[in-house]
Write a structure and sequence with these properties.
This protein is of the alpha+beta class. The chain has helices spanning about 30, 45-50, 75-80, 165-170, 185-195, 205-210, 240, 320-325, and strands at about 10, 15, 35-40, 40-45, 60-65, 65-70, 80-85, 90-95, 100-105, 110, 110-115, 115-120, 125-130, 135-140, 145, 155-160, 160-165, 175, 225-230, 230-235, 245-250, 255-260, 270, 275-280, 285, 290-295, 295-300, 305, 310-315, 330. The strands form 8 sheets. A 5-stranded mixed beta sheet has the order 3-7-8-9-16.
């Protein structure tokens, strides 16, 4: 494919990038949303004890090697990018406060660690640029869409969303990185970000200017769980999951999974399993296999704890998922 700056570029998921509608460099983006360069980490239990976070704080959770790392979601809404080294391994995390999608990734291109920051938008989704080449990357699958590295692919994995209390129960040795709140970040939170993080959402005007033709099958800011398996993508609206008593069984590309809304974090989650739903037991989802799902982990019939088997998924707004996967399906209840 041509790398000329005026040429259309189709991503691996099918999104067509129109250079005439991209805003890869917005003046002031780096000042308003500086990346969080992580140099210090804390034990999550200690952070809770010292009240650096409270039990209800919502976290963006992922693994770096064998270590579970958490970032405060509210802080990521301001930074958009966090990056550091943990146990000798480079890591980075992206989060777009508008479309609500977040990923963790290995920030290494051709054997070299790259530094990232949010610099612009496309299709109302945050775009990241690397300091080394100025190339522009979309934040969901880690594909470079513009610049010298166009077509390069970072290794990404969707983040998990839990409260601090849930995570410390699921992973007692979890680590957290907390940034200092500046006056700028407090003002942004009060006047913009808090509104964007609410279920109803909000889209700033500059984001709308970057939007190409939209998929109007659902309201653009509707929240749901987007899942893709082997190139097959499906969107599960929150209202559809709630209509099934907050849990349902579905099959996507021959992969059966349970899709449910975590009763503590309020986040939709998918877990691959051959089991059927037995019902809710308080805040625990029971399966007919004897397994139980709670607080982001699985208890087997012998009460041994295991991580969820999570397909590639994003808790996202409809417009973002439908742009990324233009041929995606929408889950509907069979009648």
């Amino acid at each position: 494919m041509s790398r000329h700056k005026s040429a259309l570029y189709a991503t691996q998921t099918g999104m067509v990038v129109n250079p005439a509608r991209t805003y890869p460099q917005i003046v002031g983006a780096g000042f308003l949303f500086p990346p969080f360069d992580v140099a210090q980490y804390q034990d999550l239990k200690a952070a809770l004890t010292k009240r650096k976070v409270d039990p209800h704080t919502k976290l963006m959770v992922f693994t770096v090697g064998r270590q579970t790392l958490a970032l405060v979601l509210k802080q990521m809404a301001c930074h958009h990018v966090a990056q550091g080294q943990l146990n000798g391994q480079a890591w980075a995390a992206f989060f777009c406060v508008s479309c609500n999608m977040g990923t963790s990734l290995i920030p290494i291109v051709n054997g070299r660690t790259h530094r990232f920051r949010v610099t612009g938008v496309y299709n109302a989704m945050s775009m990241m640029s690397d300091d080394e080449t100025g190339s522009v990357w979309e934040h969901v699958t880690g594909e470079c869409i513009r610049g010298p590295l166009q077509g390069a692919q970072l290794h990404t994995r969707p983040a998990q969303y839990l409260t601090a209390a849930q995570l410390v129960e699921a992973v007692p040795d979890a680590t957290i990185a907390v940034s200092r709140a500046s006056l700028r970040s407090r003002l942004l939170d009060a006047f913009l970000l808090r509104r964007m993080l609410r279920p109803a959402g909000y889209m700033p005007g500059v984001f709308r200017l970057s939007m190409t033709k939209r998929d109007t099958r659902l309201p653009e800011l509707e929240l749901g769980l987007g899942i893709w398996v082997n190139g097959h993508a499906r969107f599960y609206p929150m209202r559809a999951i709630k209509g099934q008593q907050n849990a349902l069984v579905d099959t996507l590309d021959q992969q059966q999974m349970v899709v449910y809304i975590d009763p503590v974090s309020g986040t939709p989650v998918a877990h691959c399993t051959a089991a059927q739903i037995a019902g809710w037991e308080g805040e625990t989802l029971a399966l007919d296999s004897g397994e139980r799902i709670r607080n982001g982990y699985v208890l087997d019939a012998a009460s041994e704890r295991h991580p969820l088997d999570r397909p590639y998924q994003q808790f996202t707004r409809w417009y973002g998922f439908s742009y990324m996967f233009p041929a995606c399906e929408i889950f509907t209840v069979a009648t």
